[in-house]
Amino acid sequence: MQALTVTKWLKMKRDGIPISMVTAYDYPSARLAEEAGVDAILVGDSLGNVVLGYDTTLPVTLDDIIYHARAARRGAPDTFIVADLPFMTYRLGAESTLRNAGRLMQEAGVQAVKLEGGADIAHEVSALTAAGIPVMGHIGLLPQSIHQIGGYKVQGKLEADIRRLVDDAKALEEAGAFAVVLELVTDGAAEAVTRALKIPTIGIGAGAACDGQVLVFHDMIQYASPYRSKKFVKTYADVGTAIRDAIGAYVRDVKSRTFPGAEHSFPGGSELAAHLYGGGEAD
């Protein structure tokens, strides 16, 4: 499979071809995603929630993202990979943003970075794209600003909110972003933004009008305990239950001494063992 490029993202929008994207945070998940034919992988700071056990994405560091993105790149060498710039690795001035994004590109080998924000970060997006770093925008619900916005609330309910989302998206497009994620916004807001842009929109909880969709790997296959259902997520498997049941079966086999069986063992050497540990003599 030939990896996407920024120009191919734009062509897919023009041609009306939906873009499939999924998160991945390690070698096996990225490998499976590539084998399944996904268009792009996001190494998101959501790894803080689903992999590292944090309540929010805020504790995730740039080193965390680089570590996981490098593993994902090894698993999916032929897939377009976007990685998040985590909390407080941008919005500190263009020079700092460039330095952090450059580390992510060089050390992890990703093709693009993603930043949360709209017109307020357009100058940093412009600096990144001028330096040759492709940027995916992210508007709507901004998990890195969760304490500021007061929780996980659907965005774009009012006409003024929709206008603001459109203005933010246009500012990102004008700054050189090649795509924009719309998170947890109303169908009407997502449609308005998608129609207003020449670059593709990627929705997560943003309805069917977007040019593509992204889901968190762990959500779509219920790889969690306990799994908390989300209205905007369609689950395609229950991996968590399968894993729990498998480990439980292993524990029972060990306790009952049915594992390992003869088929899992290597015959021979009993006489030597008796000589070494049981006082017998070997031939």
Automatic annotation (TrEMBL):
Name under which the protein is recorded: 3-methyl-2-oxobutanoate hydroxymethyltransferase
Q: Tell me which residues bind 3-methyl-2-oxobutanoate.
A: D45, S46, D84, K114
Originating organism: Thermobacillus composti (strain DSM 18247 / JCM 13945 / KWC4)
The organism sits in which domain of life?
Answer: Bacteria
Keyword check for tRNA-binding, yes or no: no
| Residues of the signal peptide | none
Identify the EC number(s): 2.1.2.11
Q: Taxonomy-wise, where does this protein's organism fall, top ranks first?
A: Bacteria, Bacillati, Bacillota, Bacilli, Bacillales
Keyword line: Cytoplasm, Magnesium, Metal-binding, Methyltransferase, Pantothenate biosynthesis, Transferase
The subcellular localization recorded is: Cytoplasm
Q: What is its main location?
A: cytoplasm
Q: What class of enzyme is it?
A: transferase
Which GO MF terms are attached to this record? 3-methyl-2-oxobutanoate hydroxymethyltransferase activity; magnesium ion binding; methyltransferase activity
Family, per the entry?
A: Belongs to the PanB family.
Described by its record, this protein's role is as follows: Catalyzes the reversible reaction in which hydroxymethyl group from 5,10-methylenetetrahydrofolate is transferred onto alpha-ketoisovalerate to form ketopantoate.
Q: What InterPro entries does the entry give? A: Pantoate_hydroxy_MeTrfase, Pyrv/PenolPyrv_kinase-like_dom, Pyrv_kinase-like_dom_sf
Q: Which GO terms describe its biological process?
A: methylation; pantothenate biosynthetic process
The answer to keyword Cytoplasm applying to this record is: yes
Q: Name one Pfam family in it.
A: Pantoate_transf
- Write out the GO cellular component annotations: cytoplasm
